[in-house]
Amino acid sequence: MSPTRVLVLNSGSSSVKYQLLDMGDSSRLAVGLVERIGEQTSRLKHTCLTTGDTREHTGPIADHDAALKAVAEELTRDGLGLDSPELAAIGHRVVHGGMFFTEPTVIDDEVLAEIERLIPVAPLHNPANLTGIRTAQALRPDLPQVAVFDTAFHTTMPEAAARYAIDPKIADRHRIRRYGFHGTSHAYVSRETARLLGKDPSEVNVIVLHLGNGASASAVEQGRCVDTSMGLTPLEGLVMGTRSGDLDPAVIFHLARVGGMSMDEIDTLLNKRSGLFGLCGDNDMREIRRRIDEGDEEARLAFDIYIHRLKKYIGAYFAVLGRVDAIAFTAGVGENAAPVREAAIAGLEGLGPAVDAELNAVRADEPRLISPAGARVAVAVVPTDEELEIATQTYALVGKNS
Questions:
Q1: Which residue among 100, 142, 150, 260 is buried most deeply as judged by most CB within 10 Å?
Q2: CA nearest 326: which of 336, 337, 318?
Q3: Largest Cα–Cα separation, the chain
Q4: Catalytic annotation on 150?
Q5: How confident is the model over 188-221, as pLDDT tens digits?
Q6: Percent of the residues in the chain that have a pLDDT greater than 90, as a whole number
């Protein structure tokens, strides 16, 4: 029999998330996380799902090479090692693929070089992704390694949606356009929403709201993305945990000229000290809701700004799509914060969506509708599964090329 296992790696600047899946039945065999790489307090948490055994280690892990070797050792302890003949491929999450990569791609020297050339537009993410790829290649040089790009799902956007209104020669020279992110999540959730409605993705128009610490919206027309809220970088769009989302670009000039701030300081302000955290000092929606319940007006204003921006994008994507069959909430906030879902849809009933309070209050791990029967536009909660999406795309590609 052909090998059916795929190891999914998501390498961050100081972390590695991983899952081992068997694509014969899409089951998970092992999951884990290495965090605080390069520190004395590094931590590896590994769970073998075939036995239910969880192991945790703390202590210095110097770099990604050491982290992946530690992961390989944990998998070997469970009989799931990287040397297993059942391992078909390793799938890597790569944040930025630019316009060059429109689909999952088997990694070779040319692919690595292009991911490296894209570092200026993804300075926090692509270097870490490259490190993970190169380390995995060293561990299993004979095994297909596949890059699955966050941006790929959004490459179907028409030029009218993807272009900024600046000199195209300058834009092209510096690769400035709207790329979008969270693409694996938007692809998976839009497909699962269609399935929930009992339809093929080609028959359905969906607004997907990926609401986590990072947040993005997309307009998906018949299975293809036609607009999304993030742009050149993940800073544009919705109010997020620590990112500002949309703002007048002249704010940057004002902070530099009048506020005397450096570009690095402004970058830090907008990416790490803005959004919900900048508005009220918390970026955890659970804590914000607790504070609101206690009468905290600062938390209330932060929540209201968050919801106002979210509603604007929902309304805009109604206009972009013309017809909307469903609105799908996903990711940490989208899946778990019932007050966010209720507030985001409140007042939009004239457009068709509505939320049933009792259905909205139910917590579940399965995709579900929270709109009342007969609503013109369905409202759904669809847990995202980016690792499964990466594994599915990786396995489909490796099977196609084998």
A1: 150
A2: 318
A3: 67
A4: yes
A5: 999 999 999 999 999 999 999 999 999 999 999 9
A6: 83
DSSP state of 176: -
Q: State both tokens at 64.
A: 């990604």
> 3-class DSSP state for residue 254?
helix
Contact 236, 180 (CB under 8 A): no
Residue found under tokens 């993030």: 230
Which residue, chain included where needed, has tokens 């084998």?
Answer: 402
Q: Is residue 21 left, alpha or beta, with left meaning phi > 0 and alpha meaning psi from -120 to 50?
A: beta
Bridge partners of residue 384, in order along the sequence: none
- Beta-ladder partners of 211: 215
Q: Are 149 and 97 in contact (CB under 8 A)?
A: yes
Comparing C-alpha atoms, which of 24, 25, 29 is closest to residue 8?
29
Contact 21, 29 (CB under 8 A): yes
Residues 67, 82, 389, 94, CA torsion sign: positive
Identity (one letter) of the amino acid at 364?
A
Residue 282: which residues within 8 A CB-CB, separation 6 or more? Answer: 276, 288, 291, 299, 302
Burial class (CB in 10 A: 0-12, 13-18, 19+), 67: buried
Catalytic residue among 22, 78, 150, 385: 150
Nearest Cα residue to 327 out of 336, 314, 340, 316: 314
What is the rounded distance in angstroms from the CA atom of residue 279 to the CA atom of residue 267?
17
In angstroms and rounded to an integer, the radius of gyration of the C-alpha atoms of the chain is 21
